[in-house]
Amino acid sequence: MTVILGLETSCDETACAIVKDGRQVLASKLHSQTEIHKQYGGVVPEIAARYHLESVNTVIEEAVESSGLSLQEIDAVACTQGPGLIGTLLVGLSAAKALSWVLRKPLLAVDHLYAHICANYIDSDLEPPFISLLVSGGHTQLVFVRDYDNWEVLGQTLDDAAGEAYDKVARLLELGYPGGPQIDRAAQNGNAAAFKFPEGAVKNFDFSFSGLKTAVLRTVEKLDEPLPVADLAASFQDAVNRVLFKKTIRAATELNIAKIVLAGGVAANKDLRKRFEAVRAVESSRGEHEETQIGARFSVYMPDLKYCTDNAAMVAAAAYFAGIEQTLSCTAYSRQP
Ligand code: KG4
Ligand code: ZN
To answer: Are 331 and 322 in contact (CB under 8 A)?
Structure first.
């Protein structure tokens, strides 16, 4: 049994979790700064770093207490090494270093993107190989995960990330911050066919969302007040999710991999989850998945909503699966073939 304490401070959530064997969450605590950054319409890095500093010790204490374990029962300490805001990462890394030094336990620094994918190992039986659609506020990638420590990025966005597009369009529609969940909510009462927005004609497994963002802006400029916000949100969401879904299915089909894994904040989007649920292989009465037929049905994994957006359980899980022997110098995500 291996118990890892994970810390996440890459952006605006100060989080600590304690995870057993990479899959069982014993405790997961999070101090969100959303309310603080709301007034600025986005995350202010310097303010974020200061709040992490104020919260980090408390969140560690809360997680340890809630786990029912003592600090001495922790086998390793993990933290996010990047990508993220440099000042906020430094707070988590310093706290993790201090903890690992005091406890004389290994320190594992993991990549934030790899951690988002590893959120899918929590409470699940997922094993590689699989195709992962990683959609966060800063990144959009299609990743072929061959093994726990072996993967390849098949394609990525050439400009805005999917989450970034959600946030920018939400700001344009004056829906507030953070934008993704607001668009998700507004779109539920809208007509996705009301406006025809482009998918972004990019080849292979790459994406582009900046043209779509501009198309929404041009449409809004031509419309009279009050704006049909729900229809605009639904039509924009449809354009983003359509291309995310299509390229993921194409990657799985071309690579002959019948397992699809969603990851990152945008994986919390209701419409996106619904699209992938529609191609999920039906479970048989014996609890097994029906034989999956490439191009039609897939084993589909998506994290619980609380593990889609930033959290520390995914960091502890990533450290476990990256290999505990990779102490001190672990750079999980850069260990590509
Ligand atoms: O993974 P994440 O928490 O942080 C990064 O690593 O970037 O992702 C945050 C992003 C934000 O852009 C947010 O608007 C988006 O995920 N997001 C959503 C939803 N919930 C969060 N986008 C669409 N629908 C949602 N329900
Ligand atoms: Zn993230």
So the answer is: no
